[in-house]
Amino acid sequence: MKDSKLRRQIAFEAARLMYSRQETEYFQAKIKASRRTVRGWVKPADLPSNAEVRDQIRVLTRLHETDADARHGRLGRMRLRALWWLRQLDAHHPKLIGSVLTGSVRDGSDIDIHVFGNHPDAIADEVDSLGFGCQVVRKQVVKDGQPRVFTHIRIADEFPIELTVYPLKWIGHRFKSSITGKAIERASASQLEKLLVFAHDYDAESLSTSLRQIQGRPDRFQVFQALMVPLENVVQSPRWHPEGDALYHSLQVFGLAKDEAPYDEEFLLAALMHDVGKAIDPDDHSVAALEALDGYISPRTAWLIAHHMEAHKIHDHTIGARRRRRLASHPWFEDLLLLGDCDRGGRVAGVSVDTLQQALDYIEGIEEMFGGDPVQPSWSPHDVGPIR
């Protein structure tokens, strides 16, 4: 295989992995793509550059997201939300970076912000005090030949937010792009305001009005939608999921749950959201789901999501007797078995399902029908017991 053709194939596969959110780092995406492409060792010189992978991601975006007006509208909303966060985090010298600043957003894109502080957990506490669930993640990467640990704070909002926390001494540091090798583009709150006025038809008054209308805590159904949309790009193993992507599977499970318990909001949310963590952390998707949904779902919904994988072990008779007895003594055990039935049943290729918006509208309609109050963030995932 010619080197140029090999590079293109690896670049395309790496782009597909990143577009589907299976990988978020260029280096890891290229390594996985090279193993899939040649099923063996690849010389570093044969790996495509980050820029080549980025160009292929843009091609996939143009192919799959053809409505330019809708994409521009989403970009404007994301930039407005980013400005709100820059103002909330002002004490930590925030700077907007990434696709929301450059304008190259796609379905599932998050809002990337650099913040500076010597105590990341304190920043996470501030986010929590605003009423948002967040997850602190520490990643070790090799930078300039040296291993470094970077701290990220992931926030569940109308659009996913990712804060990268750097020490205060790095405030004046000019970060370089891994794609161009040049200084990374970034914007302060005042610079982002000018961009919104220039590119999205705001003036000072309308911008202030729009920011005031942003709720400190987003509507929970906006959060549900923001977390569910990336599942469309999560490709699953055909062995276990012949139906296709994780969103299609989740909508099938929701449809079966609606047939079984049409007015049970908590159960329906568990059915719809049980795999939402696969777009965040495929290796531990139950934990990732609970952390992302913290404060937006009830303890019963959280318990069902936490233990839905164990429902399959019960069905397959692979769970330990002691563990099964503990689950069987729980008041929501029968609901767990029913969720497992729906989960296994939602794996059929080609069946008709509701759209995500239809599913969310249906569940929200149940709340309105019975006059339910929004779920308050008065509990934690730790309250639902061990996940494993």
From TrEMBL:
Entries under CDD domains matching the protein: HDc
One protein family per Pfam: HD
Highest taxon of source: Bacteria
Species this chain originates from: Crateriforma conspicua
Coiled coil: none
Matches recorded under Gene3D superfamilies: Hypothetical protein af1432 (1.10.3210.10)
InterPro entries in alphabetical order: HD/PDEase_dom (IPR003607), HD_domain (IPR006674)
Domain named HD: residues: 247-315
Name recorded for this polypeptide: HD domain-containing protein
